[in-house]
From TrEMBL:
Gene Ontology biological process: quaternary ammonium group transport
Protein's UniProt name: Fe3+/spermidine/putrescine ABC transporter ATP-binding protein
One MF term in the entry's GO annotations: ATP hydrolysis activity
A single cellular component GO annotation: ATP-binding cassette (ABC) transporter complex
Keyword Lyase: no
């Protein structure tokens, strides 16, 4: 059996500006029909990676292969227009003086007039804009223009689509629909997609695989569920949601906290660990005559806390607490409406199976 050939494979791409590494050894494989999201904070090197793949920027080292064929290393370089790569950016611009049909057909070089027209009609039909075929961009809404831009990018049947924050210019109501529609068309066309975003929600919604990028490197990669539930470090937890943090010192593979002891297998004595958990994994119990719930093996010990603030967020309520033990602030989210008075005493327990324990490395991890 032969191993499947990735549609796009980049190996150890590096790029520095003025001696500062901006992309520092990025490797990725994307199969046909697969959507990979490059997710990371502003300035981590996502767009630079995309520009190198598109061919508008040269890497200092590393290789790019499409369907197994080399398209770029440090000596050999297929020019951007011959890479069969489609591009969609946030500030996509349709040509204002061209009709919708001519915009979509702009990149179509091969085929007869009739064949080109058929492809334009097919794509406009797919994005549900065939009625505007002879219209002009200024007659369309932002969302409609975005769909024309998608049809234009898809017209030449690119093998790969590179998308850089393509939906961030759209208002929230339009965004979800266009995102889902775009995704299903790209899947139907079997295009490999590399989507750059700094929004975790967008990545979770779109991606088959997420590559989490920080400081020019991919720090973890996998299916959205795995990246969310098995984060590599504290910053990876915090990137997806609010996170609570308990810091404790390890003695005998155990870390002592106001919530009881946590296992820290393999962590040497005297090492500090961060115990990190999301606000939805803090359980709240009412005070019963100065007592909290009994300790259990799954939830450990309850810790006494005072409500500092409670806010209704729509689907859930966010309650902020101060722990009696050490004045640590913790956040809890509760479904629906739960708005206890500030100053109320409550007892908190953490879902131990949802906690992550990371040794404190001393390096930058937030
Ligand atoms: N041509 C350039 N010359 C010098 N520095 C550059 C150049 N292009 C990008 N940079 C720097 O490289 C770093 C990474 O930029 P890049 O645009 O790849 O980040 P990004 O992750 O896409 O960020 P954003 O989400 O804000 O677009 C930034 O610090 C940026 O200032």
């Amino acid at each position: 059996m032969t191993a499947a050939v990735p549609r796009l494979e980049i190996k150890d791409l590096k790029r520095s500006y003025n001696g500062r590494p901006v992309v520092d050894g990025v490797s990725l494989r994307i199969m046909p029909g697969q959507v990979t999201c490059l997710l990371g904070p502003s300035g981590c090197g996502k767009s630079t990676t995309l520009r190198m793949i598109a061919g508008v920027e040269m890497q200092d080292s590393g290789t790019i292969h499409v369907d197994g064929a080399l398209i770029c290393d440090t000596v050999f370089r297929v020019p951007p227009e011959r890479r069969e790569i489609g591009l969609m950016f946030q500030d996509f611009a349709l040509f204002p003086h061209l009709s919708v049909a001519d915009n979509v057909g702009f990149g179509l070089k091969k085929g007869t007039r009739a064949e080109k027209r058929a492809r334009i009609e097919e794509l406009l039909d797919r994005v549900d804009l065939k009625r505007f075929i002879d219209g002009y961009p200024h007659q369309l809404s932002g969302g409609e223009q975005q769909r024309v831009a998608l049809a234009r990018a898809l017209a030449p049947r690119p093998r790969i689509m590179l998308m850089d924050e393509p939906f961030s210019g759209l208002d929230n109501r339009l965004r979800d629909g266009i995102r889902d529609e775009t995704l299903s068309i790209l899947k139907e066309e079997d295009t490999a997609v590399l989507l750059v975003t700094h929004e975790p929600d967008e990545a979770m919604r779109m991606a088959d695989e997420i590559a989490l990028m920080r400081d020019g490197r991919i720090v973890m990669q996998g299916a959205p569920y795995n990246v969310y539930t098995r984060p590599v470090d504290r910053a990876a937890v915090a990137f997806f949601s609010d996170a609570n943090l308990l810091r404790a010192r390890v003695e005998g593979a155990l870390a002592d906290t106001p919530f009881g002891q946590f296992l820290a297998p393999g962590v040497p004595d005297g090492t500090d660990v961060d115990i990190v958990f999301r606000p939805q994994h803090l359980r709240i119990d009412f005070d019963r005559g100065g007592q909290g719930p009994r300790p259990t093996a799954t939830d450990g010990t309850a810790a006494r806390a005072v409500v500092e603030r409670a806010r209704f967020m729509g689907n859930e309520s966010l309650v902020e607490f101060v722990l009696d033990h050490d004045n640590l602030r913790l956040k809890a989210t509760v479904p629906n409406v739960f708005l206890p008075q500030p100053g109320s005493v409550m007892w908190l327990t953490v879902r131990r199976d949802k906690c992550f324990v990371f040794p404190v490395t001393g390096g930058r991890d937030a």
